[in-house]
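ingest -> validate -> predict -> emit
validate: passed (alphabet ok, no gaps, 139 aa)
predict: started
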Amino acid sequence: MGTWGTDPFGGDAAADFAGDLDDLADGAERLAAIRAALSAAVEESDYLEAPEGEVAVAAAALVAAGRPGGRPVDVVYGPKGAIGEPSEELAGLAVRALERVLAADSEIAELWDDSASGPEWRASVDALRTALRPASESV
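emit:
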């Protein structure tokens, strides 16, 4: 796993995903790519490989950033420009993708859990799940 940080864009696959998003023409195309990344993680019924999990976390971070009051993504490794406004449905898909990433049969979770930074990574994923909750569930 080529990583340099626990943030959503702190690894090779996530940085590549950001570059791919930069190559897309508009927000609608970017949102479609984000949806595809999240769906790929959710729909994986077998072992979720690390690159797919890493991209799902990055995609979820972009959805969270696009919500009202969302925290901006890493400006160095994240995509440049707007992604468009994500729907509540897309936020729900992002939550399901993060749950899949944290499951027992997820390589990225295993790799982080075997590292000293595992708790920090899990805390960052949990913070994303919280940010993605519908406004009606916020305290």
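The helical segments are 12-22, 27-43, 50-65, 88-101, 107-113, 118-132.
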